[in-house]
Amino acid sequence: MVGALDEGKITEYFRNKSVLITGSTGFLGRGAADVKKIYLPVRAADAAAAKRRVETEVVGKELFGLLREKHGGGFDSFIEEKIVPLAGDVMREGFGVDRETLRELRVAEELNVIVNGAATTNFYERYDVALDVNVAGVRHMCDFARRCPNLEVLLHVSTAYVAGEKQGLVQERPFRHGETLKEGTHLDIDVELRLAKDLKKQMQADGVDDPKAERKALKELGLARARHFGWPNTYVFTKSMGEMMLGQMQVPVVIVRPSIITSVQNDPLPGWIEGTRTIDAILIGYAKQNLSCFLADLDLTMDVMPGDMVVNAMMAATVAHASSSLLSASAAKKTKPQHAEPPETPPSVYHVSSSLRHPAPYAVLYRTGIRYFEENPRVGADGRPVRTRKVRFLSTIASFHLFMVLKYRLPLELLHLLSILCCGLFGLAALYHDLARKYRFVMQLVDLYGPFSLFKGCFDDVNLNKLRLAMAEEGAAGDGLFNFDPRTIDWDEYFYKVHIPGVMKYVLK
């Protein structure tokens, strides 16, 4: 790693670089200004369709508003000059891009940086889909990277929650190939890749042609395999396997493990967020008044990082490791024959997290949520303000299940029986179905996010702190352009003024 970083060094590094990005819109929004080219593989039938997707689903978003204002009428030509959409599929070899297109554009020869943010984040994804995207997709990316002679660094976005349900201090270290979280087990990734395919073949041989049955079987297989090896769900299990694919590269590999990514704090668009994050599902359920209780301990830490800080850390880590690789390559040319292969080095891991440096308890989210919705009430279907109600939080799984049975399940069953006896009259059937739907919503949320609500680990960030110190030495830490220090955040102000309004605007439209 280089000894010192500053804003000028980071900005200068990306100037005239060619970068390939998968699935990381935030990185694209921050890094588009000075790069030479940004290659974007997108799932599309042809080049024209890929261009349309990028125009509507990427650069057409509000995230690019500042760039649009800066370039005015020249924005479209600026984007056309910088961004190269590639029709393909990240789950396939060579990103699924036609070989002739790759040769014509000289992508492999031109490429300096790969940022891999493509992932399926569904906790209970079909096992075949999760393996294709989160594991095989990384393997194909590594194969492609080996064919890029001018590649300086490969940055892979993972998640801090590959730690599973560990307690205590979780260190920044890469997984060993085949490592698991459950003692006495060993993971063979090739076997896992075959399992999903074998299940599909077996179901076809058995004459099962119901897509719903296949989807359910593959989801259950993924969850069963994850829990067999000690992970709580298919998402973090397959992300762990994806990390293991990165251990045999000759260029520097950086694994960034963010905790829960929340909305942009400052740059380029405060409050902007894409998709529903773990804690946002709770906010949305509360905003819609579908949520009256939840499994959570308000004294536990919710490890969150604003999206722009995550991107800033990614950019700083990219420059640090790319710069050190250039120095190493220069030294190697002086001491080794030209044909010598550079040695393989293990990936460098960074936890982009806040639980160690500046923890925020779940109580912050709750009190700021209450305050926000009291001062900005939602309007119901009848046009009247929806009254803000408090949520009951239960801090153990046993107490939660007992509460749900006594408070909701038993009355629901009595209502169902009464509805049957009354032949559905008096609106009882409709009432039952409405309450049953709300009950299922709460139980689904708890099943998906409960383990994370009760997560008792703390993510060590010693490697990331070295980057912060390198920035601080040059006066670029704190509130600088590439700030990623959570200690600069006032959590109450951030959630009340930035994150919750952002969720209401960009997620709950």
Give an overview in words.
With 509 residues, this protein is of the alpha/beta class. It is 49% helix and 11% strand. The protein has 18 helices and 13 strands. The strands form 4 sheets. The chain has a 7-stranded parallel sheet with strand order 3-2-1-4-5-7-11, sandwiched between helices. Strands 6-13 form a two-stranded parallel sheet. A two-stranded parallel ribbon has the order 8-10. Strand 4, helix 8 and strand 5 form a beta-alpha-beta unit. Helix 1 packs across helix 13 and helix 14 crosses helix 18. The radius of gyration is 24 Å and the shape is globular. The relative contact order is 0.13. About 1% of the residues have low confidence.
Question: Number of DSSP strands?
Answer: 13
| Major beta-sheet overview | 7 strands, parallel
Q: If you average the pLDDT, what whole number results?
A: 86
Distinct helical segment count? 18
Rounded to an integer in angstroms, the radius of gyration calculated over CA atoms is 24 Å
Q: Reading side by side through the largest sheet, how are the strands ordered?
A: 3-2-1-4-5-7-11
The class by helix and strand makeup works out as alpha/beta
| Estimated helix fraction | 40-55%
| Strand content range | 5-15%
Taking the alpha carbons of the first and last residues, their distance comes to 43 Å
* Quaternary organisation: single chain
Give the low-pLDDT segments. 329-334
From the spread of the alpha carbons, the general shape counts as globular
